[in-house]
Amino acid sequence: MNNILKNFNFCIDNTIKEKIKTFSKKIRLKIESYILICLSFIFSKLNIKLSYILARILGILIYFFIPIRKKVAYYNLKRVFRKKSNREIYAIIMKMYINFSYFFLESIIMKKLRIDKIYGLKDNVKVYGLEILQEAVNKEKGVILYTGHIGNWHVMGQKLVELGFPINNVIKRQRNPFIFEKEMNTMLNAGMKISILQKTPKNIFQALKEKDVVEFLADQDAGKDGIFVDFFGLKASTAVGPALFSLKLGSPLIFAVDIREKFYKHKIFIEKIDYTSIDDKEKDIYNLTKLLTQKIEKYIISNPSQYFWLHRRWFTRPK
Questions:
Q1: What is the pLDDT of residues 222-233, one digit of tens each?
Q2: pLDDT on residue 37
Q3: Rg (CA), the chain
Q4: Could you tell me the residue ranges of all domains in the chain?
Q5: pLDDT of residue 5
């Protein structure tokens, strides 16, 4: 009888805990949404120069007072830059928060940036290697564009759309539906297409069939669906999508990345991915995924404060 009562009380306790957890999550998501609404309203009313100044201040305030995943960023950077002092590591983290605030601002005021004569995308975003992308598009097999969470990938997509390329973003649903909807609207209003990650890759196959330039941000932890390749010398679960689609469909695979030069100036670098298949599916996917990972590593080393270190990149471990 005592055991039955204990089990009953345990079930009630767990149910209450789950309800509290669900309620807390809803409150947190609502707070995030309200903050986004307020900041969007403020930035939309200010001139662009003042908006960048405010975004910089916001990034510094977040660093000191709302250090979201600051410990995650610290341990990630320590894994990669073992010889850097704590002071150097924290300096990178502060700059990262500032860069992410700029990213957030630019996503909100993208419409302004498309037309502004001083701070606009036309004169302040330079593209290097555009002929590589054009050559890939000319093959009419669709193009797979591999990039990472560095600089501002939305600015890169917007610029390539302005230059006449049919950019189709592969994205996954975020935990906050309001923020997810805002991000989708930003991309759609910029003239991009969207393919939401699903259990089946039909929408991505369709996008390549329609000869789109399909953009993958495939540099985060891929969980049990990924394969383990070295990321700065440590095994990391990595998405196989870009390599798999390229090998299966024969679609050209290119690498592209956006790097912020000044607070409103950007450079986009496009590189060709040359790979010869060895007719071994598993090894081909591994080798090509490893090659792409090495590409993003090169730009992270050169621009560590522009990478999104808040993600738990090494969360999934090999058995």
A1: 999 999 999 999
A2: 82
A3: 21
A4: 2-113, 121-306
A5: 46
CB atoms within 10 A of CB 294: 13
pLDDT tens-digit map of 169-226: 998 877 777 777 877 887 888 888 888 876 668 889 999 999 999 999 999 999 999 9
pLDDT digits (tens, 9 = 90+) for 129-168: 999 999 999 999 999 999 999 999 999 999 999 999 999 9
